[in-house]
Amino acid sequence: MRALAFSVHVFTALGAGFALLALLAAARDEWALMFLWLGAALIVDGIDGTFARALDVARRVPRWSGDTLDLVVDFTTYVFVPTYAIVASGLMPMALGIPAGFAILMSAAIYFADGNMKAADNHFVGFPGVWNLVAFYLLLVRPGPAATAAAIAVFVALTFVPVKFVHPFRVGRLRAVTVSMLALWCALALAAVLHDMAPGPWITGGLCLVGLYFFGIGLLPERRGNG
Fold first, then answer.
1. How many Å apart are CA 129 and CA 117, to the nearest integer?
2. The pTM is what?
3. Do residues 218 and 166 make contact, with C-beta atoms less than 8 angstroms apart?
């Protein structure tokens, strides 16, 4: 059972290998392939916790911290590789891209070290460093250098603002709606990737609407009981 429990850590670490494959694709300007590999890493990140709890990994192999391993892999897949894509893809001239990349990496590193990044209701507090999603939308829409730099500045600033962002599985409020919207987003995102990040207005518009849902749901005021 200890060996089986340790295999969950190996499975989690597989995400770092997918990050390498994504980076190699990005270095060849193969953005759709990069997002496929980042999607594979996202799947690993989404299910490894279920395995860890089922096998009681923290108790059986206490020498290795699953939380630390998660943070290492997540920083690589959610932040570092997407930042490379944002800087190297021509969305901005290097005079803007390199400072933007520094801002992304530094703000995300500080956020990942924040012991209070999650609220009691499982919302993330501040923008949770999902720069893979920011990179996806920027490469999908390609809004121009000034708008790209402005969007990055907004999300860097939101990292340090106590605005809530929803965790699609762990936040109870509107969970069924949120999970359904996540499934829709996955289908539309896969279609965009299969169309080499140029899927046409209907898929692009749908992705933007779903993105607005996830951005806005954390801003909804909390419902308070009558007591």
1. 10
2. 0.91
3. yes
